């Protein structure tokens, strides 16, 4: 991997403006016309606004990561952000409009130091705060993963099991998914699901549309079907 650029990167121009800035004349909007076409229609309200804005922020972050030759490192940063903001208390703190932005930025500085975030990743969080769009950060994380996977020809596979699988088992699952998809890389995410009893499931493909089910729960359901017990619900 190429050495990371140490000079802080200024890239506010790549990001959508706060909602209040939409009415500003176009000549004062310094982000690209492509980004503007994506964002301005989305700023008209509803879930569509959040989804489109999140995608635009994600693309902008990926552009900065590519320009600084730190795409993989930025992806690692985004994973850290995802874990931090999965805590409801952390998310509620940043999404709370009554808390001063300066306080939020101080917490971002602390997080950046403790997590070892790159300067442009920390700056990215501050941009969401300034734009009053920190509430969509989880959506941005999801969209960034899609952009990153597309740029690196990476297939995301979510492996669910009752207990944590050994690394060699996860490696074998990754090889299997790679053969099935032809992807250059396979990225594994793990999750726990006690309802599986034992074994595991693997979801991959577009929005997890494809499933490999190696769980005991699935086996029990198949046995029930073979015994013509389809009307009997199996609780596990």
TrEMBL record:
Gene Ontology cellular-component terms listed: membrane
Keyword Glycoprotein recorded: no
Keywords: ATP synthesis, Hydrogen ion transport, Ion transport, Membrane, Transport
Gene Ontology terms for molecular function: proton-transporting ATP synthase activity, rotational mechanism
Location of the protein in the cell: Membrane
Pfam families reported for this sequence: OSCP
PROSITE patterns, per the entry: ATPASE_DELTA
PANTHER family noted in UniProt: ATP SYNTHASE DELTA CHAIN
Similarity-based family: Belongs to the ATPase delta chain family.
Subunit structure: F-type ATPases have 2 components, CF(1) - the catalytic core - and CF(0) - the membrane proton channel. CF(1) has five subunits: alpha(3), beta(3), gamma(1), delta(1), epsilon(1). CF(0) has three main subunits: a, b and c.
NCBIfam families: ATP_synt_delta
UniProt-recorded name of the protein: ATPase, OSCP/delta subunit
